[in-house]
Amino acid sequence: MVDVPNPYLAAIKAEKSRTSGDVTALSGLLNGVVGMFHTAWEGGLADQTCDRMASLGRAAAEAGASATAAYDTAIAGQPAQVDEDAWQTRWRSLNW
Q1: Looking at the predicted structure, is the pLDDT value of residue 25 above 70?
Q2: CA 31 to chain centre
Q3: Is-contact 21 37, C-beta < 8 A?
Q4: Strand locations in 1-96 (E)
Q5: Which of 17-21, 35-39, 46-50, 78-82 has the highest mean pLDDT?
Q6: Closest Cα partner for 40 from 57, 26, 22, 53?
Q7: 45-57 b/e with 16+ CB inside 10 Å = b?
Q8: Residues 64-73: pLDDT tens digits?
Q9: Nearest-angstrom CA–CA distance, 50 and 21
Q10: For 89, which DSSP code?
């Protein structure tokens, strides 16, 4: 049997890297919106809207941390090398 680099492991690492940018961008966007509301809007529903946006920002950060942890767990469970006939060499895609 011949061992080959694990393509499934490589795909998980690539997907983790790609999504980490999305998490950072979303968190930054929501934090920016909260800052904008704090400085530009007073009265009415301003405080409630700011609180809601801040809550969404926290939820996005928590979801990002959970996703990162899930990727880390998946990465830790995969060997760097697999047999050339292993299922990891035949899987199709993480994007469905």
Answers
A1: yes
A2: 17
A3: no
A4: 3-5, 81-83
A5: 78-82
A6: 53
A7: eeeeebeebbeeb
A8: 889 999 999 9
A9: 24
A10: G
Enter the DSSP assignment of 77. Answer: T
Per DSSP, the three-state class of 17 is: helix
Diameter of the chain by CA atoms? 71
Tokens of 87: 């299922």
Query: Cα separation of 52 and 49, whole Å?
Result: 5
- Amino acid at residue number 92: R
The beta strand positions in 3-71, using DSSP E, are 3-5
Q: What residue ranges do the domains of the chain occupy? A: 25-78
Residues 6+ apart with CB under 8 A from 90: none
Rounded CA gap, 94 and 68, in Å?
Answer: 15
